[in-house]
Design a protein that fits this description.
Blueprint lengths: L1 H14 L8 E4 H18 L11 H17 L4 H4 L11 H26 L7 H11 L6 H15 L1 H16 L1 H14 L15 H13 L9 E2 L4 E3 L2 E3 L4 E2 L3 H4 L40 H18 E4 L23 E6 L4 H4 L3
Antiparallel strand pairs: 1-7, 2-5, 3-4, 6-7
Helix pairs in contact: 2-7, 2-8, 3-5, 5-7, 8-10, 8-12
Length: about 350
């Protein structure tokens, strides 16, 4: 990511006037989405979705199918409320879903087959680990199961993480004093001789406070994945019958004025020194059914956001605050995709030029 932005900045400068203090406009939304797709696919299959040597027809189809899935999943359909209409498929939604699923399944199967051909011991990827498990229990870890796991990881971990980082950058750009404090903390504990690493996160309490506040104020999934009660239960003052679908509105919980002081204000200080004890921030759910991708998401988010802060100077396009209006979708996107001005920090230019 740092190398990509540093290279893009230098190329943009060459096309205009090469000034040492020149800021370049950046489409953060698209950059973050492409970045997260690369991170996810590298972790899963040892491949990049975007970048050098990724223009094959198969990879283009895979990228397009994922983008189409996000578009479909973020839209409301009459069939969701009147299931009988699915037979008619008035808008062709079911046809699109079947096509996207077919392309995804075929693409992931190619990744699996490539791992088998190259040799499972040569790649440390998630597919490699699943194939090792398949050797021990071929019935439990069929290719079909591996494909479903991979597709679920790609769909669940890409847009949600990139959207969260986008909200974080928007809030930091609107609150430059918080951005400066986070930058100073990283400079003090990490320095400018290397990029921030996962192991640094325990020594960056203020950055962790920023992440917690972003999860509270802008949860990627405002409504948690639906749960169904397996037996009759009592929840608060409500009797929940067996088989009832329960959807938790964490957006409302985490902005409840009876719990949070100034709930709509971005204020990382509320998490300093354990001040939030007893107040729930649950973007990944709770208990045994909480999101299994939480550890990976936390590590990825911390390192990526930390790298953006450590490596570059950021400012808004103009004097006006960034519009924080929320858009529509399965996740909670920004209504206006985030754009910003950036340039490499002077102290980091020597390090970034080595990549």
């Amino acid at each position: 990511m740092a190398r990509q932005l540093f290279t893009s900045h230098n190329e943009s400068q060459e096309k205009s006037e090469a000034k040492s203090d020149s800021f370049i406009k950046l489409d953060l939304k698209n950059m973050l989405f492409e970045l997260m797709m690369n991170v996810m696919l590298m972790t899963i299959a040892g491949k990049r979705a975007y970048g050098e040597n990724n223009d094959s027809e198969d990879m283009q189809k895979f990228r397009e199918s994922l983008l189409e899935w996000f578009e479909i999943s973020g839209a409301s359909n009459v069939e969701d409320f009147l299931p009988l209409l699915r037979i008619l498929d008035l808008k062709g939604t079911m046809k699109r879903v079947k096509h996207v699923n077919k392309v995804n399944q075929e693409s992931v199967q190619r990744f699996i087959d490539e791992h088998r051909l190259v040799g499972m011991g040569k790649r440390k990827t998630m597919i490699n680990s699943l194939l090792e498990l398949q050797k021990k229990d071929s019935e439990k870890y069929k290719d079909e199961v591996i494909r479903d796991i991979v597709i679920t990881m790609m769909l669940g971990g890409t847009e949600s993480t990139s959207t969260t980082i986008e909200w974080a950058m928007a809030e930091l750009l609107n609150n430059p004093q918080i951005l400066e404090k986070a930058t100073a903390e990283i400079d003090a504990h990490v320095g400018n001789k290397r990029l921030i690493q996962e192991s640094d996160m325990n020594n960056l309490p203020y950055l962790n406070c920023i992440i917690s506040e972003i999860f509270r104020l802008h949860p990627a999934l405002p409504l948690l994945v639906p749960h169904k009660s397996r037996e009759d239960i009592k929840l608060g003052n409500y009797d929940i019958a067996k088989g009832t679908m329960l959807i938790v509105n964490i957006y409302a919980i985490q902005r409840d004025p009876e719990i949070w002081e100034e709930p709509n204000k971005f204020n990382p200080k509320r998490f300093e020194n354990g001040n939030s004890n007893g107040k729930l921030v649950i973007p990944f759910g709770m208990g045994r059914r909480r999101c299994s991708g939480e550890p990976f998401a936390m590590r990825t988010l911390g390192v990526l956001l930390g790298t953006l802060i450590q490596s570059f100077e950021w400012k808004r396009l103009g004097d006006e605050l960034i519009d924080l209006t929320e858009g529509c979708g399965l996740t909670t996107p920004m209504a206006t995709p985030l754009e910003a001005m950036y340039q490499p920090r002077t102290a980091m230019k020597e390090l970034l030029s080595e990549f």
